[in-house]
Design goal:
By secondary structure, this protein is an alpha/beta fold. The protein contains 12 helices and 10 strands. The strands form 2 sheets. A 5-stranded parallel sheet has the order 3-2-4-1-5, sandwiched between helices. The N and C termini lie far apart (about 60 Å).
Length: about 290
């Protein structure tokens, strides 16, 4: 192994694996998996299927969010003693929205080398096909499962000054789109990538309302990567009311039983400020109660 020959120190390889199409596996990734002492995988069944398809044999152990600290300590000790380990995720690049970062940090502390083996990534694949600005973007992982937290999450992304990318599970996609339409408006632009690189790959360039209607009529299936364009910030202007007055008015609307969505619309109309900004303020007020 070229990287290993250069040093006797242990090495942790972060190996990107296909997100769908097995032809996306690089020659370097295949060689690395064939030569390391041990492969660590979120799902050992998935990696064994990939290894079998590529005619690779090798030791495989599980490494996931519930891995016991004692096992992680053993792996770190092996790295310190010169072992070569490869870490893979279920699909794509390890260390993004999975427990890999923790092992990487431990590896660097024990003096082992960390070597990324780049390759497939749903984040960059979706971004490249989105048509949205990619000079700067934020990856937010999976959307929260609880509606209140998810709405706060979506409101923040809709107002972000850069393109936002996140993952969503198929059984939560409709509720996510419903929340997005409420906090950011039905005309909120959105790009939804489904089953990237797979046989039934689909990319939708649409709005929150249209996407919601589409997936209410057609049950979501597969893996979803969702992108939002940079938010439109309200231009700076002379405020008509102080922040204290604005928060007081918002609190009063909530006391009167006005829904968060309607209250945000009223405040946005009266002040000229962004609707999602007003929605975020209302959520904060509710959290202070």
């Amino acid at each position: 192994m070229q990287e290993r020959a250069a040093s006797s120190a242990g090495i942790l390889y972060l190996v990107a694996t296909p997100i769908g199409n097995l032809e996306d596996m690089t020659e370097r990734a295949l060689r690395t998996l064939a030569e390391v002492d041990l492969i660590l995988a979120e799902d050992t069944r998935r990696i064994r299927k990939l290894l079998a398809a590529k005619d690779i044999s090798g030791r495989v152990e599980s490494y996931h969010a519930d891995t016991a600290p004692a096992k992680r300590e053993r792996l770190v000790k092996q790295l310190a003693e010169g072992t070569a380990l490869a870490l893979v995720t279920d699909a794509g690049t390890p260390g993004l929205s999975d427990p890999g970062a923790e092992l990487v940090a431990e590896a660097t502390r024990c003096g082992a080398r960390v070597v990324p083996i780049p390759g497939p990534s749903a984040v960059t694949a979706a971004l490249s096909a989105s048509g949205l600005p990619g000079q700067a973007f934020e990856f937010a992982g999976y959307a929260p499962r609880q509606s209140a937290e998810r709405r706060e999450f979506l409101a923040a992304l809709a107002g972000s000054p850069v393109t936002s990318v996140f993952f969503e599970a198929p059984h939560r996609l409709v509720e996510c789109l419903r929340d997005l339409a409420e906090v950011a408006g039905e005309d909120q632009r959105i790009v939804i990538c489904r089953e990237l690189t797979k046989l039934h790959e689909e990319i939708l360039y649409t709005t929150a309302a249209e996407a919601l209607a589409h997936f209410e009529a057609q049950q979501p299936r597969g893996e979803f990567t969702v992108l939002l364009p940079p938010g439109e910030r309200a231009e700076a202007r002379e405020p008509h009311v102080s922040e204290k007055q604005l928060r007081g008015a918002a609190a009063r609307l909530l006391e009167l039983g006005v829904s968060t969505r309607d209250a945000a619309g009223v405040l946005a109309t009266l002040t000229g400020r962004a609707r999602n900004e007003m929605y975020q303020m209302l959520l904060e007020l509710q959290g202070e109660e």
